[in-house]
Design the sequence.
C-alpha cells in the first residue's frame, strides 16, 4: 500500500508527513480500521489540507467494513428498550461504530426484513431484541453472514450470541421480600398469559408461593394488560373479590402505578394495608408516590452486555455462540418498606 | 439503463419479467430510489432468486444516496430528546430511510465532528439538537453539502432549517394559569442562569408577572439545577425564606418532583397550600402523585416537524431555510387543579 497514489492528489506518504504520523497509521485510517482518535484526527486534518476527500462509500467498498452497527428494538416507546439503547450507544461509540436504529414494532416481518437486509452489508453487526423468536427468525439468523446478538431467549443451538433476563428469579425475589415483611395474602396482577412475559411471570409467581409453602389461590390472580389503566381496572376487580389482600405482585411498573391509583381511591394505605411491587424498575418507579419497589430485570446491563459481545465478534472472535444471563435485582422503595429513601435522584432532564 | 447486464448474471429485463413489474420499477429499486414497499419486495425477491445480490455499498456509489439520515441528540438519557427520537424514527422509516443515531453529550467538539463527517457522505441528511449553537456550529453548517435541520435556535441567516420551542410563551401559560387560580405569591425555581433554558425561563417568568401586574420579588426566585435532588434543596431554601409562597413555577419536571417531595415532608398540601407546575411534560409528570401540571414544549411535535422538513429537502426542495416554531401547551393535572383526571394512561411498558 505504501506510496499508493490517491487519484492525482496526495499520497499516503505526503499525508503521513503532514500529519506527523506513520505511514501505517495513515493506511489504517484511510482504510477505516480502528485507530486512536487523536491519530485519526491528525490524519484526516492532513488529508483534508492536502485536498484528499474521504468517501465513506469508497472506503467501505475497499475495507468491506461499514463501521456501523444496527440495534433493532421491538418498541421505541418502551422504556426497557430505551434503557438498553442508552447503554448500547456509548459502548459502540467508544469503539468507533455508528449506531443505526431500527424500531420493528415487534412485527415479525419487520424483524425478518432487518435480518435479511444484513445481506446488503450496511452494518458490520446487529443487536436485536425481538419480543418472540419464531422459526422465521431462526432461519434468517442461520443465514446471516454478519454477527448478531439477540437480547431475549433463543433455542439452544441458535447461531447467535444471546443475552437473557431472568424474570423467574425476579418474581421470586419480590415474593420472598413480601413474605419476609409478613404478608400472606399476596396477589398477582398480570398481563395476558399468551405473551412471553405474562406466561413466565405467572408461572414464577406460582413457583415462588410453592417454595414458601403458601397455598396457590386462583382468587388471588388477576389478569389484565401491561398498561396503567388496565392495571387499575384489574386491581379494582381483585379488591372487590378479595378485600383482605395484603400485597400485590404486579407484572410491570405501569400495572403497579394503576394499582396505587386504585388503592389510594379506596382509602387503603400503601404499604401499611397493601404492599405493592412493580417490575422493570423504570424511571416511573422512583417518580411515583409512594415510590415503587420494583424488580429490575437489568435492561441497561443487558444492553451493555450485548454491545460488548458484539464488539468481541467484530474484533474477530469466532468461538461458539455465548449465553449471558443478567441476574435481576430487587430495588426496595416506599411502596413496600415505608419510609425508605426515595430512589436515586439521578436522571438529567435539561430543558431544550 | 434498460437491459444493462448486472455482471454476468441477470439483467434488469429478466428481473422485471420474474417480478412481474415494469423495467422502470426494477431500475428504481436497484438504484435505491423511493419505490412502493410491495414493488420493492417483488423486485428484491426476483433479484435474489436470479442470483443477483444487492450490495448497499455499490448501490450507494452509483446513486450517491445512502438512504440513511442521522439524528444527533445532545443527551441520550434526556426524555425530551427521546420524545423527539420516538417521532423522528417512524417518519424516516416510512419514507425508506434508516436512522443513524449520535449522542454528543452536548460536547461542542462532538457536534462539530458530526457536521464535518457529513463530508464522508454516510448519510443523506442530518437532524441535530444542540444545547447551544456556537460560531463553530455555524461555520460547519455553512460548509455542509448535506441538508441539516436544527432543533433549537439558530441566528437569522443560518443555512439550515430550524425548529424551535417557545419556552417564553410556555412559562407565560403556566403563570397565567396559577394567577387565574387565585395564586399571588408565585415563586420561580430555576436551573442555572448561564444555560439557555435557565436564562430564557427566568426572563419569561419576570415578563409574565409584569404583564399580570404582579410585583417581581427577588425573594421568590430560587436558583438550583435541573435535577430532582437540587430542586428539592432549592425549594427547602425557598420555603425557609418565604413560608407563605402559594405556587411554584418549576423550570422542569425533575425540579417539580423535588418540590413535591419537600412540600410533602413539610406537611403542605398540594395544590391546596401550594400549587406546583413543571415543564417539559415528561412521562414522569403523569406518574407522580399528585400528578403534575406541566408545560409541554412539544418535543414530540418538534421531532416530527424536523423529520418532515428534512424529507422535503431530500425530495429536492431547495427553497430558502425555514423556521418552524412549535407552540407550547399547558397540561393541567392534579398538582394545580386538585382532583382532575390523572393524565393519559397511554404508555406501553411490556416486560421483556
Sequence:
Amino acid at each position: 500500500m505504501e506510496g499508493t497514489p490517491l487519484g492525482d492528489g496526495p499520497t499516503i506518504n505526503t499525508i503521513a508527513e503532514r500529519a506527523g504520523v506513520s505511514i501505517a497509521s495513515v493506511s489504517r485510517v484511510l482504510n477505516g480500521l480502528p485507530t486512536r482518535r487523536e491519530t485519526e484526527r491528525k490524519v484526516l486534518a492532513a488529508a483534508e489540507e492536502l485536498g484528499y476527500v474521504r468517501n465513506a462509500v469508497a472506503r467501505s467498498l475497499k475495507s468491506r467494513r461499514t463501521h456501523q452497527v444496527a440495534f433493532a428494538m421491538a418498541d421505541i416507546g418502551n422504556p426497557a428498550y430505551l434503557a438498553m439503547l442508552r447503554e448500547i450507544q456509548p459502548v459502540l461509540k467508544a469503539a468507533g461504530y455508528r449506531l443505526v436504529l431500527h424500531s420493528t414494532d415487534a412485527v415479525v416481518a419487520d424483524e425478518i426484513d432487518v435480518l435479511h437486509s444484513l445481506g446488503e452489508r450496511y452494518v458490520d453487526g446487529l443487536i436485536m431484541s425481538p419480543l418472540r423468536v419464531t422459526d422465521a427468525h431462526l432461519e434468517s439468523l442461520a443465514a446471516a453472514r454478519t454477527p448478531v446478538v439477540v437480547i431475549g431467549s433463543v433455542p439452544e443451538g441458535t447461531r447467535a450470541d444471546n443475552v437473557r433476563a431472568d424474570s423467574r428469579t425476579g418474581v421470586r425475589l419480590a415474593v420472598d421480600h413480601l413474605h419476609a415483611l409478613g404478608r400472606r395474602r399476596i396477589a398477582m396482577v398480570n398481563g395476558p398469559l399468551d405473551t412471553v412475559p405474562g406466561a413466565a411471570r405467572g408461572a414464577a409467581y406460582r413457583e415462588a408461593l410453592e417454595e414458601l409453602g403458601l397455598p396457590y389461590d386462583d382468587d388471588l390472580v388477576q389478569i389484565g394488560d401491561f398498561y396503567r389503566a388496565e392495571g387499575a381496572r384489574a386491581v379494582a376487580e381483585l379488591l372487590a373479590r378479595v378485600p383482605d389482600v395484603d400485597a400485590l405482585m404486579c407484572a410491570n411498573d405501569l400495572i403497579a402505578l394503576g394499582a396505587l391509583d386504585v388503592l389510594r381511591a379506596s382509602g387503603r394505605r400503601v404499604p401499611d394495608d397493601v404492599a405493592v411491587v412493580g417490575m422493570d424498575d423504570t424511571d416511573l418507579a422512583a417518580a411515583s408516590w409512594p415510590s415503587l419497589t420494583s424488580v429490575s430485570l437489568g435492561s441497561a446491563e443487558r444492553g451493555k452486555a450485548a454491545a460488548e459481545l458484539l464488539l468481541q465478534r467484530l474484533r474477530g472472535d469466532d468461538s461458539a455462540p455465548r449465553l449471558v444471563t443478567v441476574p435481576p435485582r430487587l430495588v426496595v422503595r416506599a411502596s413496600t418498606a415505608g419510609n425508605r429513601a426515595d430512589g436515586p435522584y439521578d436522571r438529567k432532564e435539561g430543558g431544550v
Q: What stands out?
A: The two ends of chain A are 48 Å apart (CA to CA). Chain A has three domains: 12-63, 68-165+299-326, 167-296. Chain A has a mean pLDDT of 86.
